[in-house]
Please model this.
Amino acid sequence: MPVKKVSVEVVLPLRQKILRPGKPIDQCLFDGDRAKESFHLAVEENGQIIAVASYLPQSCSFSSAQNQYRLRGMAVSPDHRGKGLGRELFAAGIDCLKERKCLFLWFNARASALDFYRKSDCRLLSGAFQIPDIGPHYAMGKSLS
Model:
């Protein structure tokens, strides 16, 4: 299934269902989602969005690289996990970032996703920390230079 660029409105319902269950949809919109340089990717099957990821221009303190981006809101529908969709989304995002001359990608990974990101050559940037009402996370990153 091909990965395609979509508007933020397309990613919000799955983001809400998987990452912010029970929260109003407006609480699923992140700062920077509507920035001109931000982009959102999705995989669709039979008219339904089954996987999403967003990439926002945002720097972190873990790298001095210019032109950094942050991955946010990556989610795959439970019925479609284990089929490589997350890997496809992540790889498509990296391709888009390289076209934009991004040098460093960073994100806060849920503890349950550490192995997924490690397999994509991402490295830990921090120890565990809690995001209230969501759970344990780790800052992670990947150099794209």
